[in-house]
Specification:
By secondary structure, the chain is α+β, with helices and mostly antiparallel strands. The protein folds into 2 domains: 3-86 and 133-164, TATA-Binding Protein (2-Layer Sandwich), CATH 3.30.310; 165-198. Helices cover 47% and strands 20% of the residues. The chain is built from 5 helices and 6 strands, in the order βαβββββαααα. The chain has helices at 12-20, 87-109, 117-131, 135-150, 167-197, and strands spanning 3-8, 24-25, 39-45, 48-54, 65-73, 76-84. It has a 6-stranded mixed β-sheet with strand order 1-6-5-4-3-2, covered by helices on one side. Helix 2 (87-109) packs antiparallel against helix 3. The chain is elongated.
């Protein structure tokens, strides 16, 4: 797909800060925090941008992303990139298209004309998923990037750093809960047996 270019009066660091304030960080946030929301998700780091519009309850594997970079441009900046799918998704779809194409051709040449339906169906689905670009997703991502270029930096303060939970403390809490539950089961068993004895 053709490249997109956005220009802003903000310097690269300010532009990235404003964008970060509007998205869930894919590298830091747990998926459960935004899985049931319509929101923006992505990563912004080292002048690189990877952002997409997440629709409630959908998979992130097939979404159309904006992948690009932020460059200084005079006193402001410019953002150059393209709308595409993730590298992993593109690899999988291209691989599927190649395998299903070869399988279909081999089966047709070998006389298995009735059995060629399955690989052809998979080929059509993979081609559709590879080249289909949802207009709504694209429109939402372009709106986000355009709004970021003209946003007032004062409206987007820095997010406080996320405190990661202590794994050791979590393990201790689990052990405590397990001990309490085990004790409760033991007490219940004792109560039942004593009740039965009476």
């Amino acid at each position: 797909m053709s490249n997109y270019e956005f220009r802003s009066a903000h310097d690269p660091n300010t532009w990235q800060r404003i964008l970060k304030a509007q998205i869930f960080d894919e590298a830091e946030e747990e998926r459960g925090e935004y899985a049931l929301q319509n929101c923006y998700v992505g990563t912004v780091a080292n002048d690189k941008v990877d952002v997409y519009y997440h629709k409630e309850g959908t998979s992130r594997l097939l979404v159309t992303r904006f992948i690009g970079r932020v460059e200084a441009d005079g006193t402001g900046c410019k953002v150059v990139g393209r709308l595409t799918q993730s590298k992993e998704t593109l690899f999988f779809l291209n691989f599927t298209i190649a395998v299903m194409t070869v399988a279909s051709v081999v089966m047709l040449n070998s006389g298995f004309r009735t059995q060629v339906t399955a690989p052809l169906l998979f080929l059509i689905i993979a081609l559709f998923m590879r080249f289909h670009k949802p207009k709504h997703e694209i429109g939402m991502v372009i709106k986000l990037l355009t709004d970021t270029c003209t946003a007032n930096p004062a409206d987007f303060p820095d997010r406080p750093p996320k405190v990661k939970p202590d794994k050791k403390k979590r393990k201790k809490d689990k052990k405590k809960k397990g001990a309490v539950a085990e004790g409760s089961v033991r007490d219940a068993a004792n109560w039942k047996s004593s009740d039965h004895d009476d």
